[in-house]
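Schema walk-through. Below, the input block comes first and the output block second. Nothing else is stored per chain. Lengths vary across the set, and this one has 354 residues.
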Amino acid sequence: MKHVKRLGLGGAVIAGLMAASGAAVAAPCLDVILTGVQGGPPVFRGQAGAGTLVRYGSEENNCSDVMLQFDTGRGTTQQLSKLGVPAGKINAVFLTHVHSDHSEGLADLMQLRWHFGSAGPKVDMVCSDDVTTPKGYTMSCRAYGENIGAALIASGEMAQRLAENPKRLPGGPADLLNIMTFSPGDDPGTVWEKGDVKVSAIKSRHVAGHASYRVDTPAGSVVIGGDAGNDTPKPPRDSSTSAQVEKLAQGADVVVHSVIHPIMGPDGVSGFPPPIYYRQSTATDLGALSKRAGVKHLMLTHHIPPLGAPRQGPYPVSKTGLTADDYIGAVRDSGYEGDVVVGPDLTKLRLVAE
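--- output ---
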């Protein structure tokens, strides 16, 4: 049996789990924290880039035995610091894909680890194998990791840091990455394990090399969909969502997924490019997926458009932008009756096992 704590910005507990005697129970717990909810490369009111921290442990240690970061958009390190999570405490980083808005914060995270923690331990970097596209270019998560400090090496900055402290690793932050690539398939496969925590992955469509993940623990399970969309890139199709993500989400407690509001569709007035709209999952279709998969909590992130934004980049939305209720209403149009979470950076959800 699981109990849920919804935690707002700053971690105020709205609902709790108590023993029959009234004393707190140090039970296994799973935190799901949106470290960044910005949709795409634009910046709105200082929102951080896409990312989700999943941490597992007990209530006694604030769920902090295992810490996993899924995607590392801009500002990830700053967001982790607000949570009291040092860069050196992250056990593994998982990239859904190497679009800059999902990965550019990794350089900052790893530079910080190198600067103050070259003795290790290394952080596992888990992502898809190289994929060569039909147009001839290669999407390479491995190359991204291996070159994470290239600009600082080329500029001489890293040589200067090494002159100050020769105990630092000579190859820079890349020396602290344990790159673990996998070939995602149409069925879930295990890609990472530590104690009671297992992470599986599945191939999903957005750009070449995109993968979605599921974390299973004794306290609950969470699916990180990334920017996944339907294998059919445009209508006619039954849904904008990914059939592979739906397979991964069967019986999950939580789904965290990027979202686009139907207001940005080709029938609207925003002028948003149809190919980009079609490769995202709409709020309504994500609700339908969650209903079919039996998901209890749907957390929407990577909001397109951001809450309150009059524009998505150059594309107009409305004078006042959208509210959380606008997104929740679009989800409810699907018939989904579970919990819908739409909030700013650092919105949290906690699952606690009895």
